[in-house]
Amino acid sequence: MTREKVLRAAALVITGIMAAGAVGCGSSTSSTSSTTTTAAAGSTTTTASGSTTTTKAASTTKVSGQITAAGSSALLPLVQDAADAFMAENPDCVISVNGGGSGQGLKQVSDGAVNIGNSDVFAEEKLDATAAAELEDHQVCTVTMAAIVNKDLGVTNLTTDQLVKIFTGEITNWSEVGGPDESIMLITRPSSSGTRALFKEYALGGAEESSSSALETDDSGTLLQNVEDNKNAIGYVARSYLVNNSDVQAVSIDGTAPTLENTYSGAYNVWGYEHMYTKKGADNTAAEAFINYMMGDSYSSKLESMGYGVSSKMSQTAIDAHK
């Protein structure tokens, strides 16, 4: 969001406070929804897309009402945590957060079914040009995607070529890549998944995943559990699902581990921006205030501890690799 738009949103909130004494969260056609505060403009960072992300300074304005958000399972843990923290500060507000995949989140916010559509990819990748142009992009952080295997498998590194051949079904036994003589259990994501879109583009070089012999789920928690329960399984999740998790093995690619440090430097290239979209022309004062709260100094310090990346820390090398 630009500085001018943030200031306009803040002005709207102040006007509402003068008129009613509180800021409402706006209407929604979904079930329950959320709370929110307004934020003042802060520092601005240019992203790989040429758009900007702004670090917000949250205000102390109390808010009441509802907000709904849906979409990316990769972003879900962060949005839920921020919603809980926000509601604690604004007890008269309710925020409802659901997954469903980036494609579904974008479709729902485009249709007006939710206030915020969470996505791992730009709206243009899932919606037609007209629908995408009607949405406002708020880039809240970055996310690193990692291939994962069972911790007892004994495979900790794969080359890009091996990874592509495994996910396209050309390699079907772990013995072909230095593992045990066991058939590979492939777990993939549906076409609506933003996690799949990022992994396909940056880990698989655009290669299409095999579907004939793969299990499919768009729930990251379910995928994680399947890998934990099956020694020969392989899948991929956002790094946020691997924080404090020792039950699966994150796989290095060409000898480079999926750490934040390697992502920031550009050594590990499987990452993307996390987006929270609102619909232009709608009453988004409350939704955007919640987003501003997430991007504010008081909350954004939690990003890295939850496995997400700070956009301003991305090196030019990393950014250039995504252009």
Mean pLDDT: 83
- Portion in beta strands: 15-25%
The rounded distance between the terminal residues' Cα atoms is 21 Å
CATH architectural label of the largest domain: 3-Layer(aba) Sandwich
Structural class label: alpha/beta
Global Rg: 20 Å
Tell me the total number of β-strands: 16
Return the CATH topology of the largest domain: D-Maltodextrin-Binding Protein, domain 2
Query: Count the helices. How many?
Result: 11
Describe what this molecule looks like in 3D.
The protein has 323 residues and is α/β, with parallel strands linked by helices. It folds into 2 domains: 3-142 and 275-320, Periplasmic binding protein-like II (D-Maltodextrin-Binding Protein, domain 2, 3-Layer(aba) Sandwich); 144-265, Periplasmic binding protein-like II (D-Maltodextrin-Binding Protein, domain 2, 3-Layer(aba) Sandwich). 31% of the residues lie in helices and 24% in strands. The chain is built from 11 helices and 16 strands. The chain has helices at residues 3-20, 76-89, 102-111, 129-133, 160-167, 194-202, 220-229, 260-265, 285-295, 297-300, 316-320; strands spanning 23-24, 39-40, 44-46, 52-54, 57-58, 63-71, 93-100, 116-119, 135-150, 157-158, 185-188, 214-216, 233-238, 248-250, 252-253, 271-279. The strands form 4 sheets. Strands 1, 6, 7, 8, 9, 11, 12, 13, 14 and 16 form a 10-stranded mixed sheet that branches. It is globular, with a radius of gyration of 20 Å. The two termini are 21 Å apart.
